[in-house]
Amino acid sequence: MANQRNGRQAVRNGGSGIPGWGLFLGGVVIGIIVCAIVVWSGRLPSLRRNDQPQANPNAVAEKGSAPGIAGSSAASSASQFDFYKVLPEKEVVIPSTELSAMAKAEQQKAAAANNASASAPAVASAEQATSSAGGYVLQVGSFPDASKADAKKAQLALQGFTAHVQTITLDGQTWNRVQIGPFASATELQRVQKRLSDAGIHAIPLKEK
Questions:
Q1: Is this model's pTM higher than 0.85 or not?
Q2: DSSP state, residue 46
Q3: Which residues of 36-71 are buried (b: 16+ CB within 10 A; e: fewer)?
Q4: What is the pLDDT at residue 115?
């Protein structure tokens, strides 16, 4: 019986095939081979994806020779709109300080003339006193494009201002001027200009020569 047990013990100890250290060494060798294959495959052009953006080592940034969008749009806007298109032989732009002085003088003259008649408004008298002089207008803009002038006129109408479009030719260029008026006095012109300013609308005062 003892001999049989010893025989089975020998079979269990010696029948394991490959020893443990041999399995460990084999695993290390397989791992090294797999890593080598992965590294080497990364160097092969045929295994790279061609559908992704590729870096261009020879790329050079282009010089900004053309104007930017903001600059070009500003230049275009300036060429399509101008407040100060006037006829030098027929009209002049009235500076704000001069306009204020003219309106004040009118009001003082009207007050003196109507000192005995308190029922007559000073503004109305001022308009009558200067009705024989040259007319006044407020110019809101001047456009080469007639449709833009009509659009500006419509915009003013929505805000309660009655404007008209006057077409002129200046230095061979046709301009469509959007104007409000005429006014009989500087006082009335200044009053309407203030209304426009309060509405955020810029306008220049003109006086006929």
A1: no
A2: G
A3: eeeeeeeeeeeeeeeeeeeeeeeeeeeeeeeeeeee
A4: 76
Give the Cα separation of 68 and 113 in Å (integer). Answer: 61
Site of tokens 């006057």: 166
| Cis peptide bond prior to 182, omega within 30° of 0 | yes
**Residue-wise over 107-136: b if at least 16 C-beta within 10 A, else e?**
beebeeebeeeeeeebbebbbebbeeeebb
Distance, in Å, from the CA atom of 185 to the CA atom of 111, rounded to the nearest integer, reads 15
Residue 119 in this model has a pLDDT that exceeds 80: no
Higher pLDDT, 132 or 106: 106
Q: How far is CA 88 from the centre of its chain?
A: 34
Q: SS3 letters for 67-91?
A: CCHHHHHHHHHHHHCCCCCCCCCCE
Domains, the chain, ordered by start:
81-208 (3.30.70.1070)
For 18-46, the pLDDT digits (tens) are 666 677 777 777 878 876 775 565 554 44
Q: Return the structure tokens found at 71.
A: 């600059």
Q: How far apart are CA 164 and CA 167, in angstroms?
A: 10
